[in-house]
Model the fold of this input.
Amino acid sequence: MSDRRAALSIRGLHKSYDDGTVALERLDLEIPAGTFFGLLGPNGAGKTTLISAVCNLIRVSGGQISVFGHDVATLEARRMIGVAEQDPNLDRFLTVREALVYHGGYFGLTKARAIERAEEMIDVFDLRAKAETRAPKLSGGQRRRLLLARALLHEPGLVILDEPTAGVDIELRRELWRYIRRLHSEGTTILLTTHYLEEAEALCDRIAFINDGNVVAQGSAPELAARYGVANLDIDVRAGVVCFRLAYDGIDRAIGAQIHPGRLGEVGPSIVLLHVGSNGDDGCVRADPRILYEIQNDP
Done:
């Protein structure tokens, strides 16, 4: 699945609407083959528009997109892209096996090859016991696994994962991480969109922040942490509230999160777990981590 050319090359991508709204502003981005690439940004930053453009689902106003050297509008490019959407858009009348086989047909696989690949994916994603089960009867985790299996069925070189762990519990998130890591270890290029900074940090080789339709920061997690990491952190244990400021490339936003006793609050980028007690003199704990995401308020 690897290729010496860029898996995804975007040059001067521009998208504006009739009302004057600019969704993408001359955006440039290149993802080398074999890279695990994270795309982060607030709601309305342009992530969804960018993914739609890469999947050739919208008409852009200008710029060029190529996938492994092929223009995104060509069938060759489309066959090289697999997408696992955030919302499980599964046909409620199809079984797991049927959903996979039919998907193979959409990408030109012969019936025999589609069946063969479906059986492979059923085993890879531990869906054998549910092969004859329809989507409404699957658990949330099983549906997410089916989405991943479907995205990989036609053996794409570039897989786009659109917030694959949004709204899931910690156990399911870890389970999905295992599948995603396995996928990357096999040489597949992955483009991950997520709101979870720690997820991008744990999984991705490189990360780009997008805001107002353009890339405002890009690099590895350590590089971004060194340049734009959290400067300071004030924790008011009595109120159970965390407030800090996250600044990157001219964007300075205050972020707050409620911390519940005995629970983890995901409040920013980190691989550090800070245990906070409630016996400080003034009820506050102050820290200066460059990277921080999980804070536990011990009861």
About this structure: The longest helix spans residues 170-185. The chain has eight helices and 17 strands. The chain has two domains: 6-219, 229-297.
